[in-house]
Amino acid sequence: MLSYRHSFHAGNHADVLKHTVQSLIITALNEKEKPFLYLDTHAGAGRYQLSGEHAERTGEYLEGIARIWQQDDLPEELESYISCVKALNQNGKLRYYPGSPLIARHLLRPTDKLSLTELHPSDYPMLRNEFQKDDRARTERADGFQQLKSKLPPPSRRGLILIDPPYEMKSDYQAVVKGLLEGYKRFGTGVFALWYPVVLRQQIKRICNELEASGIRRILQIELGVRPDSDRFGMTASGMIVINPPWKLEQQMNNVLPWLLKHLVPAGTGHTKVSWIVPE
Ligand code: SAM
């Protein structure tokens, strides 16, 4: 089943959280000279047209990126992320939103590598076209979870692995844990970043419990909620689970989440969280 299209959701509050964390991790990896691999298991189309039919139909970006990208008091933790958004929208109008592969492309250095997989028959060709002229990148129409076995460890022995499935199938909630364990077994020093939606809180508790029981250490959980948990209203929050986070990430997210909450959830119905599922 491949009915999910990210173009309906691009730039929403969940993308803002995910891409903030992604850009902070890449910025931290850039601090060391040695090149690294950026592996995006569920890469999407790469670029999303916000004036297109899909994004206009839901208007989700209006309550996400549109609320923050031109704020004057932008926290420094958002600078690299927002610089990617601005690079795509140079005339001051918000027409395009960069997906995770474009954010990586903007922030990676000439010596780093990108490995991007996407399965959807419409989104994959768009992704491939975006990266046709980028020698650092390899795109494949392939199963993302499989990459956690076949692409790890990278030759450079440094890397960020973003795992961002649509969770349209309930089995994704189990597949992400299995995939993380398989990836970690091969590449225990990599930075793994898993995105999750809070639709049923129990599903996320199960992921956290399974990771806690796995024996893996240094697992950080970051969350931004827009409404109280409920099993009736779809996604009420989203989060990132990061294995081996850069040492500054916890503090950076503690700094920036209150600002994001204020701007993205002005109604005051939201919450934030930064806590260790398993510490050092
Ligand atoms: N990571 C993207 C970003 O942040 O811009 C968004 C990805 S979107 C949430 C999930 C994507 O996974 C969809 O484009 C979907 O077509 C794709 N997908 C679904 N199942 C997949 C699989 N098994 N392997 C690879 N991609 C898959």
TrEMBL record:
A GO molecular-function annotation: 23S rRNA (adenine(2030)-N(6))-methyltransferase activity
Pfam families assigned to the protein according to its UniProt record, in alphabetical order: RsmJ
Hydrolase found in the keyword field: no
Keyword rRNA processing: yes
Reactions this protein catalyses: adenosine(2030) in 23S rRNA + S-adenosyl-L-methionine = N(6)-methyladenosine(2030) in 23S rRNA + S-adenosyl-L-homocysteine + H(+)
Residues under site feature: Interaction with substrate rRNA: Y4
Active site, renumbered: D164 (proton acceptor)
Record key words, sorted: Methyltransferase, RNA-binding, rRNA processing, S-adenosyl-L-methionine, Transferase
GO cellular component, one term: cytosol
GO biological processes: rRNA base methylation
EC number: 2.1.1.266
Positions that bind S-adenosyl-L-methionine: H19, H42, S100, E118, D143, G144, D164
Subunit structure: Monomer.
Protein family per UniProt: Belongs to the RlmJ family.
HAMAP family with a match to the protein in the record: 23SrRNA_methyltr_J
Protein purpose: Specifically methylates the adenine in position 2030 of 23S rRNA.
Protein name in the entry: Ribosomal RNA large subunit methyltransferase J
Species of origin: Erwinia typographi
